[in-house]
Amino acid sequence: MMLQGKVALVTGSASGIGRATATLAVSAEQRAFGAAGAKVIFSDIRSVEGEETAALIRKTGAECLFVKSDVSSEADVQALVQKTTLAVSAKQRATYGKLDCAFNNAGIDLVVTPLHEQSIEDFDQIMSVNARGLFLCMKYEIQQMLTQGAGALVVSCHRVIGANAKLVGYGGGLDRKQWLLSHESSTCC
What we know:
The chain is α/β, with parallel strands linked by helices. It has a single domain (7-187), classed as NAD(P)-binding Rossmann-like Domain (Rossmann fold), CATH 3.40.50. The chain has helices spanning 16-22, 47-59, 74-86, 90-95, 120-148, 176-183, and strands spanning 7-11, 39-44, 64-68, 101-104, 153-156, 185-187.
């Protein structure tokens, strides 16, 4: 198993793609971090759903640690990466203690409305979570990987709108798949 013994960090893991990535994923052919042998540390702003994800991961026999975290908060992201590498107890430090890879999935969708009807508060919220959150996660993950002298990959998947929606206010709209293809990124350290 390629991820055996590796420590993976997944943000936005309370549901959807993040939960699937942190657990077994949707089918036997599509195994994610937990099923592939990684020790998974994952975060979300929603504690109840995060604990549900932890229960799903533990059912597979994989080790995991849930950390409640808001990716738009620099202090929360710093604490998340620190908990990933230092963990909370000596046993967890021996289990985790490093950061090998990360999947930055945390992001929000708001109700799709024509651009001219959107509020500046909605814009600020989306930018805070989807842009600033991605920046903060990658900043502190890459710092950690450089400090420890290892770490292969930081994968980021962000969105602005719902799965079947279109950005309104632009000529003809831009569907989610086109937007994602132009905004997904992988960064190697």
